[in-house]
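Supplementary Note 3. Input sequence used for the single-chain structure prediction.
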Amino acid sequence: MNKAHFLLLLTAIAITSCNTKEKKLVNETSGKTNEVSVIIDDELWNGEVGDSMRNKFASPVLGLPQEEPVFALNQYPVKLLEGFMTNSRNIIFVKKEAKSQFRIENNEYANPQIVVHISGKTVKEILDTIQNNDSLIITKIKESEIKVYQEKIKSDSLFDVSKIRKKFNVQLNIPIKYKMVLRGKKFIWLKKEITSGNLSLIFYQIPFTSIKDNNNAVKRITRIRDSIGRIYIHGSVPRTRMVTESAFSPYLTKTRIYNKPTFETKGNWELLNDFMNGPFINYAILDQPNHRILVIEGFCYAPSKQKRDLMFELEAIIKSVQFLKKK
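The predicted structure, written as discrete structure tokens, is reproduced below.
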């Protein structure tokens, strides 16, 4: 074999090897929705560091009727690192060692994947790192989980959103299992049936000045959604309608969807004069160019089920929304 042929063979092998590694990397990703593998020695996990991680990353999700953790944490000792645990979609490594560090890597061992590295010389250093970065870690993992779910939606059959697009001039990806149950002048209601319950998405728009960014915003949002419930969302029993549950104050935060300022409201709804209730997540998106606020809300009725991942599905669908240019 001459030198030129030998070099060509080496190049072909290298390219094949890289492609094989890429393919292997993509195929190795595993893990359930909102599940995190924590690689940490038992001594740290059973002490202050483990307590801090459970308090930060397995705290109750806001707005659910029952306590459910933000993430399901699965702990594995560091000695088990070599093996299948590096295939998990979300990993947090915690080590006590001479080198102090905090970093977040994308797709370090698999794709898609978030890997968080935390280390310190002392327990206090590790605790301080967790304390200073817990919000960032949660945000990064949640954003990654939402993207994974949105990609999964796109790979399945999709609901025909042409009526939503025509009425509100937006595009989003919705699984085909959702069906339209009601359409008004400025209102659309979709529903997906599940075992012993259902998931709903509603769309409506209100004038841009309807909600002000002040201390009364959450009350205003509550009044608006209750008025929508009075008009459109009724039960099978006469004189029943959806209202915001008064026993628990909704949680309001500010975020951005499609780079637009957005009020995110989480709380519980109930059917007035009936027994039905459940959680909701409401996004009031400030669409200033079109002088309106577009509200997209997801709510579920699932009395015998855990609701965190059901609400996560609705959140992921809503956050896929894209605002279209006027023709």
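The longest helix spans residues 123-155. The two ends are 64 Å apart (CA to CA).
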